[in-house]
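Comment on both lines for my students:
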Amino acid sequence: MIMGVINNFLPFNFIAFGQLFVTGGMASIINANTAFMGVIVSGIFLSTEPATWNRLVGVIIGVAGVAIAIGVTPTLLTADTSNLFVGSLAIVLATVAYAFAGVWGKLKLSEYSSTQSAVGMLVCSSAVAVLCSFLISGPPSLAIISYPLDLIQVVIGLGVLGTALAYPLYFRILEVAGSSNLMLVTIIVPVFAIILDALMLNQFVSRADLFGFTLMAVGLLVMDGRLNNYFFKRN
């Protein structure tokens, strides 16, 4: 239940709210902050994943990239500057929740298989989401039934690809690679999200956003340690 709340219910709501004001590409760039939050939280709570110097330097570089991406992004036509900041902050809060979820999963769910952890988490988070939805918004609208193709796309895109197939992989990576290493995969998300946003939604990120993302990528490379090992071996 705890994993369902901090790894599904809270971040999904934060991201959905944030994307009322920022593009999908921008949301994915901010979401890459999960890797840096993961290193910080893991370093505090997991003795097996200490905050080494390269990880700390990488976090500083990466968080600077996040700040640049948030601070100089032009507003969308439907949102003013304050709304843009609030939307970006909501997605940052989602990354904090993801970081704590990685640590919690490592500490409390390691005795279960990846499929068991995924099923338990999703069942519990779904129960919380349905209850809160009824309490806050009332019974859901059945209008989407009138558009079965849209419903099928939502089920396949978010339900099957983004959830049912993704979370067994998530828990398997958590088991074999650790919490902070798991968060490193978020660097891949912006690449695909920016491309899909441009092709399907005609939403483009600015050069400043790309600069911030590039800085974050550099921070991840430093944090990962393999870049340092490459230079040391050459020298």
Summary: The first helix runs from residue 2 to 18. The chain has twelve helices and no strands. The chain has one domain: 2-234.
